[in-house]
């Protein structure tokens, strides 16, 4: 009897190196080349068409990730010249900025023993400045020094000295900033050209906060008024922010009273809200202070103290609903492996709507749950009503036979034979229960 099909599973990995060896995007194309000895022709064409569609989805998805990646380990410093003294000073200044950025703590350098800055520098270069400014000593800053630091080494230094690390996985923060300067009152928007907005952007980049400015068009105004922004009211701000991100939202109210800027701020997160007020004559000083307070509050939530040694790793299961396509499966997988509380994640089982992942943690369960709660990808759901002790995954779906008429997402998921655990392994783990948490993928 002629076999229905022969399957070859080829895995090609392209890595786009962005800033550091430890910080890269991985585009994975899992391509199934199917030769059908019994039915070929149009069936083959349909299968290839599905493959191309799958590859396109992955490319678009990874491009979307790249648009919001923050350059954590790159710093630009204005210097007087290219002399050694200027260079060493810039190395120290840049090192401090990166340590603050990846620790999520604006005063970390007051507590951390400062290492030799040059040991963490990977490369640097100079660019001339078209319109030089002056420093506090009246010297012209004629060069921009671009410095790239060794991020993985700096993160290790923090962890070795007992400090947490806020990794490259950072949710987009939606910025709602209402301004009144005299008779004018407005909300800063995505395409605005404004000194206030430019100052906020610079401060957010300095702290490594990925930001999203709103359009504040008629759709936004129906959900969110200027008064809501000024008051930092959570419900209307959160509802309007969902259009841009499901992560935190930062609101600010800036009012110029003729002598100084008065401001009130709120940072709205699932784990809790923060409110504070500031007054300054210089709007640059005020905005930088406000962003520092917001970034410090984000650091408390997202920076993680890693455990030492794999023998201390905690294992949990995550049952995720609404994983009904290859794009969504890879989206969840990339999300979990990108969390700095996760050492590794692998798929245990999949079916047409759900996926069960096992995550080994380099930190505590509470750290993981806190990250997911305050992030923008998964929402917590109740366990399945029919059997709350099970992960809600069909354990009979481990057979790896592929039918050419199956949906592509099922075919590819089932073909990843090396990562799906056997029934015996799953039953063994059920006899020694692993904590199971239930989530739904946010579309």
Task: Walk me through this protein's architecture.
The protein has 443 residues and is an alpha+beta fold. It folds into three domains: 5-67 and 308-441, no CATH class; 74-160; 173-301, Rossmann fold, CATH 3.40.50. Helices cover 33% and strands 30% of the residues. It contains twelve helices and 16 strands. Strands 6, 7, 8, 9, 10 and 11 form a six-stranded mixed beta sheet that branches. The protein has a five-stranded mixed beta sheet with strand order 13-14-12-16-15. β1 (5-20) and β2 form a beta hairpin. It is globular, with a radius of gyration of 25 Å. The two termini are 45 Å apart.
Question: What key attributes describe this structure?
Answer:
443 residues; alpha+beta; Rossmann fold; six-stranded mixed sheet; five-stranded mixed sheet; 12 helices; 30% strand; globular; disordered N terminus
């Amino acid at each position: 009897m002629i076999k229905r099909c022969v399957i070859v599973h080829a895995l090609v990995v392209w890595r786009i190196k962005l800033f550091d060896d430890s910080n890269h995007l991985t585009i994975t194309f899992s391509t199934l080349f199917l030769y059908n000895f019994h039915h070929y022709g149009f069936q083959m064409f349909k299968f290839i068409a599905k493959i191309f569609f799958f590859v396109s989805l992955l490319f678009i998805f990874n491009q979307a990730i790249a648009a919001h990646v923050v350059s954590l380990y790159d710093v630009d410093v204005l210097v007087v010249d290219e002399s050694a003294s200027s260079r060493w000073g810039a190395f120290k200044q840049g090192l401090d900025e990166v340590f603050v950025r990846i620790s999520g703590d604006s005063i970390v350098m007051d507590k951390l023993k400062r290492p030799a800055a040059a040991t963490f520098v990977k490369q640097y270069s100079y660019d001339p400045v078209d319109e030089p400014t002056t420093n506090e000593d009246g010297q012209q800053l004629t060069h921009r020094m671009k410095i790239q630091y060794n991020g993985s080494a700096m993160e290790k230094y923090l962890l070795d000295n007992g400090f947490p690390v806020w990794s490259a996985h950072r949710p987009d923060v939606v910025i709602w900033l209402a301004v009144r300067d005299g008779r004018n009152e407005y909300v800063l928007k995505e395409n605005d050209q404004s000194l206030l907005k430019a100052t906020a952007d610079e401060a957010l980049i300095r702290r490594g906060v990925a930001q999203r400015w709103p359009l504040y068009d008629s759709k936004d105004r129906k959900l969110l008024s200027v008064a809501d922004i000024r008051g930092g009211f959570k419900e209307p701000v959160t509802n309007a922010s969902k259009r841009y991100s499901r992560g935190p939202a930062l609101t600010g109210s800036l009012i110029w009273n003729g002598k100084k800027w008065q401001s009130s701020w709120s940072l709205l997160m699932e784990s809790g809200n923060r409110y504070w007020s500031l007054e300054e004559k210089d709007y640059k000083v005020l905005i930088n202070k406000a962003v520092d307070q917001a970034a410090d509050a984000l650091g408390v939530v997202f920076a993680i103290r890693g455990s030492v040694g794999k023998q201390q790793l905690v294992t949990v299961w995550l049952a995720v609903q609404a994983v009904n396509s290859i794009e969504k499966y890879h989206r969840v997988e990339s999300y979990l492996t990108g969390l700095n509380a996760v050492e590794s994640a692998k798929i245990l089982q999949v079916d047409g709507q759900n996926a069960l992942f096992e995550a080994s943690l380099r930190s505590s369960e509470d750290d993981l749950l806190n990250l997911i709660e305050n992030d923008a990808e998964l929402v917590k759901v109740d366990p399945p009503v029919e059997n709350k002790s099970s992960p809600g995954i069909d354990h009979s779906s481990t057979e790896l036979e592929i039918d050419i008429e199956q949906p592509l997402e099922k075919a590819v998921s089932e073909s990843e034979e090396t990562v799906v655990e056997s029934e015996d392994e799953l039953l063994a783990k059920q006899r020694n229960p692993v904590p199971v948490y239930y989530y739904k993928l946010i579309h």
